[in-house]
Design brief:
Layout: E1 3-9, H1 19-26, E2 31-32, E3 35-42, H2 48-60, E4 64-70, E5 77-80, E6 82-84, E7 111-113, H3 118-127, E8 132-135, H4 142-153, E9 160-166, H5 170-175, H6 184-200
Parallel strand pairs: 1-3, 1-4, 4-9, 5-8
Antiparallel strand pairs: 2-3, 5-9, 6-7
Helix pairs in contact: 1-6, 2-4, 3-6
Family: Belongs to the peptidase C15 family.
Pfam families: Peptidase_C15
EC number: 3.4.19.3
């Protein structure tokens, strides 16, 4: 049976939960478009996160991989366009690592573009009444580390892959006054739609999604 691998991260920076995993695990064992979704949690640790991800890829041989990550402060579902070959951590990861200006893959290219139909995904999510946009940066923390490593690993395979950032959950926003949030129900629906679109849309649509800064 064909599978889709969706991942979320463990909590980090002292948080009690990580909504990326809370949403991803809701899709575990779900059938979407005749394909089985398998959810796996990744550690918020440089290096180890890619080892866990690669083990899951080897085990499942998925046709699609979507990594989900938290981007506190963002207001919408952010479908990442590009991952860059650099680790530059503002804070330490959950193992105390804080790489600065270190390449993810020493001989790797400067960047990889997502192979998801990113414009079609955001268009569908918006039509469902959920805010969504293309993001031009996945940051330089473990999220970008995973996205770059994922695309590097799958560069010679037909499987599609990419990363989607989500806002804080309402539970987190209560503890961070003024922080934008999105309900888990909306996030899960958006991820369901992203999976469905990525499985069925071969050629992305042409839709404005750029940024001026």
């Amino acid at each position: 049976m064909k599978t889709v691998l969706i991942t979320g991260f463990e909590p980090f920076e002292g948080a009690r939960i990580n909504p990326s995993w809370e949403a991803a695990r809701q899709l575990n064992e779900r059938m979407i478009g005749g394909v089985k979704v398998v959810a796996r949690q990744l550690p918020c640790v440089f290096g180890t996160s890619l080892e866990v991800l690669e083990q899951a890829i080897d085990e499942l041989d998925p046709v699609l991989v979507i990594a989900v990550a938290l981007a506190g402060g963002r207001t919408d579902i952010s479908v990442e366009r590009v991952a860059i070959n650099i680790d530059d951590a503002r804070i330490a990861d959950n193992a105390g690592n804080q790489p600065i200006d270190k390449p993810i893959i020493a001989a790797g290219p400067a960047a990889y573009f997502s192979t998801l139909p990113i414009k079609a995904i955001i268009s569908a999510i918006r039509e469902a009444g959920i805010p969504a946009s293309v993001s031009q940066t996945a940051g330089t923390f473990v999220c970008n580390h995973v996205m770059y490593g994922l695309l590097h690993r799958l560069r010679r395979r037909k499987a599609r892959a990419g990363l989607i950032h989500i806002p804080c959950s309402p539970e987190q926003a209560i503890e961070r006054p003024g922080t934008p949030s999105m309900s888990q129900a909306s996030v899960v629906l958006a991820l369901e739609m992203a999976i469905s679109i990525a499985l069925t849309v071969e050629k992305d649509i042409c839709l404005e999604g750029g940024a001026t800064h």
